[in-house]
Amino acid sequence: MKKDRIIYWATTGIVAAVMLVSAFQFGLNPAMKVAFAHFGLPDWFRLELTVAKILGGLALLIPKVPTGIKAFAYAGFTITLVSAVIAHLSSGDGGRSLDPVVFLCLLTVSYLYFSRERGRSLLEVKSS
């Protein structure tokens, strides 16, 4: 069980750190406005993504956050990472599409070990 916790926290920590760093880059680095325009995305989406990444990163890192909130964070990060791959491929930045794939794999490992520790999938519905 100790090995499982180490794997969970290592993968979760890496993903959360990457999301938090990218959120601060999106919010504070003026070059990100240019990058979002390159993808054809509006500037308001950059700011929305900044807030969502901060909240999601914190949700994964704080142990007492309810499981349902963590499930939203996992789902949101999955959508974000898949969308990043699509955006890079669609805009001709094919080489840059590998990074989100790596982090999606780490996110998947984090999710699987989180689910294993609780003995069920986050997506299971409790029966009454």
Beta strand count = 0
Q: Based on CA inertia axes, which overall geometry fits?
A: globular
Please give the domain count. 1
Please mark out the parts with pLDDT under 50 across 5 or more consecutive residues, or reply none. none
**C-alpha end-to-end distance:** 30 Å
Portion in helices: over 70%
Class by SSE composition: mainly alpha
Given the structure, what is the number of helices?
Answer: 5
Rg, rounded, reads: 16 Å
**Assembly state (oligomeric):** single chain
Output mean pLDDT: 89
Description:
With 128 residues, this protein is mainly α. The protein has one domain. Helix content is 77%, strand content 0%. The chain is built from 5 helices and no strands. It has helices spanning 2-28, 31-38, 43-61, 67-90, 98-118. Helix 1 packs across helix 5 (98-118) and helix 3 packs across helix 4 (67-90). The longest helix has 27 residues, at 2-28. The protein starts with a helix and ends in a 10-residue tail after the last helix. The model has no long low-confidence stretch (mean pLDDT 89).
List its traits.
128 residues, globular, mainly alpha, 77% helix, 0% strand
Mind sketching the topology for me?
Blueprint: H1 2-28, H2 31-38, H3 43-61, H4 67-90, H5 98-118
Helix pairs in contact: 1-3, 1-5, 3-4, 4-5
Brief sketch in words of this structure:
With 128 residues, the protein is mostly helical. It is built from five helices and no strands.
